[in-house]
């Protein structure tokens, strides 16, 4: 089977005022490649790996209308166009029945998602970029933050230009930012995920726009200065549903449901969550419906959460992030991440 080749548009005009119409005109995963003052160097931004996370492409559409001229060649990938165009636009994380594209970057590259991921990897290897920033929206409302796969001063300086929190994770899920760990040709390429905030938050588009402008304008990435306010959290734990466990989001426990999470649990994506916080309610099975495995596969849930009179509480102070109120994401991915303090 022939390898997939991605569409490439070089220095394209923006012919549509409406971003949905513009993405329809793209029609497929597409690289937008902008010529730079120094085309010997390349920087990469990826966006829309999840079709329901549009802030990156919204900011791109607005920014391209300004006819920018980057310092280096800048390649921007609009990735999961097929999922994004399923009506209504920008509401489907992935194509129904298909794999999560941001879980397809680890071999074997199976199915349509795997073929697309492999094509992205091949293009990145050919371009040998100075850095890659992968733009996402959080699955619930909350502040922007960056995610990296290792502690590295250069990545910390890069993250600190766009947000005030960096999560260093040891989970290996097959995401794009893990490529330097598994693709020898990309081992020296710094890759960072930037969660810009919730898809409906206007601030998220502002954060994404800042990435395009700064990567285009910076003469030399080695000159970045550290952000003294950057908060670094290491090795978060994913809280997940066990198979077959039912979930709902509400303001009171739902009859017959195994886990009812607080309807606005995404409010905990900001600040500190304390032991007196009620995160939701548990059915007859109690905590048995939940798990929080670390990167070694150990279930750490009993160290993190407890049940008090049918309510779900933290055992101690912690930071929550990526808490979602979307039932489908809760079932297919996770409920939230925790870093105990």
Automatic annotation (TrEMBL):
GO terms for molecular function: hydrolase activity, acting on ester bonds; metal ion binding. The keyword Zinc applies. Residues 48-142 form the Succinylglutamate desuccinylase/Aspartoacylase catalytic domain. It comes from the Bacteria. InterPro entries: AstE_AspA_cat. Keywords: Hydrolase, Metal-binding, Zinc. Its cofactor is Zn(2+). This is Succinylglutamate desuccinylase/Aspartoacylase catalytic domain-containing protein. It comes from Halomonas stenophila. The lineage of its organism: Bacteria, Pseudomonadati, Pseudomonadota, Gammaproteobacteria, Oceanospirillales.
């Amino acid at each position: 089977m022939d390898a997939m080749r991605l569409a490439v548009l070089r220095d394209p005009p923006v012919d549509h005022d409406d971003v949905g119409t513009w993405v329809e005109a793209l029609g497929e995963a597409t690289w937008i490649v902008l010529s730079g003052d120094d085309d010997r160097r390349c920087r990469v931004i990826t966006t829309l790996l999840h079709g329901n996370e549009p802030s990156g492409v919204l900011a791109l559409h607005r920014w391209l209308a300004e006819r920018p001229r980057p310092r280096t060649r800048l390649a921007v990938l609009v990735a999961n166009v097929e999922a994004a165009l399923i009506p209504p636009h920008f509401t489907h994380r992935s194509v129904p029945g298909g794999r999560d594209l941001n879980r397809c970057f680890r071999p074997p590259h199976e199915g349509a998602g795997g073929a697309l991921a492999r094509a992205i990897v091949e293009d990145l290897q050919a371009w040998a970029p100075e850095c890659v920033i992968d733009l996402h929206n959080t699955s619930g409302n909350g502040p922007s933050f960056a995610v990296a796969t290792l502690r590295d001063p250069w990545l910390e300086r890069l993250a600190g230009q766009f947000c005030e929190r960096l999560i260093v994770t040891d989970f290996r899920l097959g995401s794009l930012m893990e490529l330097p760990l598994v693709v020898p040709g990309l081992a020296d390429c710094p890759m960072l995920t930037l969660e810009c905030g919730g898809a409906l938050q206007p601030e998220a588009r502002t954060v994404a726009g800042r990435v395009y402008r700064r990567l285009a304008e910076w003469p030399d990435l080695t000159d970045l200065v550290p952000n003294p306010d950057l908060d670094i959290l290491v090795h978060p734990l994913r809280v997940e549903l066990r198979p077959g466990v039912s979930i709902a989001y509400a303001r009171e426990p739902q009859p017959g449901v195994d886990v009812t999470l607080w309807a606005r649990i995404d409010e905990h994506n900001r600040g500190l969550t304390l032991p007196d916080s009620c995160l939701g309610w548990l059915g007859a099975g109690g905590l048995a419906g939940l798990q929080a495995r670390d990167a070694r596969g150990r279930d750490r849930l009993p160290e993190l959460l407890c049940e008090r009179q049918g309510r779900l509480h933290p055992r101690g102070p912690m930071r929550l992030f990526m808490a979602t109120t979307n039932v489908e994401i809760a079932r297919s991915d996770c409920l939230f991440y925790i870093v105990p303090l």
